[in-house]
Amino acid sequence: MPPRDANWIDGLRGVASFMVVCGHICTAFVPWLHAPAKDPQTAPRLFQLPFFRLAVGGRTAVALFFLITGYVNAIGPIGKSRAGNTDIAFQGIARSALARSGRLVLPTMIATFITWFFAQTNVYFMIRHVDATWIRQGWMRQEPTLWLAFKMLFKAEVETWTKGWNPYDGTQWTLHLFLEGSMIVYLTMLATILVRPRARYITYAVLYLYFWQQGEGLAIGALKGLNIVTGMFVAELHNQFKDTATSVLPAPIPPIMIIFGLFLAGYPQDAQSNARWSQTMSDIMHSIAPKDSDVRRYWDHLGASILLLGIFFSRPARRLLTSPTFNFLGRVSFPVYLMHNTLIKSVLAWLVYLPSWLNPRHNAKGEQMDLQRGGTLHIFVAVAIFYYVLYRCASWWVQYIDPWCAKVVSTATRWAMGESAPVANGGPILRRSSGAGEKKSVLPS
To answer: So where does this one cross the membrane (predicted)?
Structure first.
């Protein structure tokens, strides 16, 4: 395997973070794209069709994040287990489990502080009046006193991890699930580090069936559990095939898997009955998923999993994902995820709605009406500027904030484990070894 191929998982993570941002922008300004058609009698628009509708594929991107979490956290322990280095594997699991909370919580706390500060300095005042419902729902008031402001900050910092909700940034609801998913990986690795690979495969199968039937809960089944287990399974495949993975299957099979996975991942979020293809998918999944489960999450999981497997077995796909552009997207994926909602509610909202704010409309009673967005060209230009600002800020985050967070987490971990000397140099906050033959990858979750 060429050296650059080893970093393909970072490129995939970068694509997933970009999809999340794109999905939220589309949810804000063109929410009708979540349906496969306006109604059963109306022909769909271009971006309501399969494949094209991945422009609003934020749900699939979240599934990819969980798959990647399972993959990168399991690949090292599995490699050491197969090599017989069980003592080193146990030490690695212990260290990772101890440091994991800091790697997620500390950057998230900083991001929450930033969006809280924006709210308290009234940066979000405009979004209370915009016509984009998704953006308007993210408005938080400026607290009347400093005491109440800090009280709300403390509440947001704590409830992100206890209740899974941050009132200042609703997109952080997945982060406590990423932490729980990591702990599932560590616990599974701890229980199976001494067993043969075949026994671990059986363990994955049992866990998969368990989480499949837990589908009634959003977080327990199809969103978190199935993707985490599948990620561990792919990590096992990596350690089994190593450099030969991209030559295991006949050449046409991986691209077929990728295309099929992309199709499944396009299962619409709303109004599935408006198109025959999505209604058929709905009927199929309702017949095999647990009663009253969210079948959308099952299709998200299956689509993302088949896509991941297709890329895993495909040399051209890996090469594409290791290009400089995708490597950059991967490096900044976590800060992009943390900051995009804050910048949508500030930078993007100001760009889109400032002309309307300068000349607001009022109804017959003299009450201000919702601010109106600009024309299509205006929005495209605003979105382009927003993306530039977002990724520029993410680059600064990786350059300045990540090393500081890494130092804090490393120092705390060394203190907790009674170590007097550093075990590694500083670097991006979510950097960890991914096993033999792999470069280090930057985790977003």
So the answer is: 12-32, 52-72, 104-127, 173-195, 216-235, 247-267, 334-354, 375-398
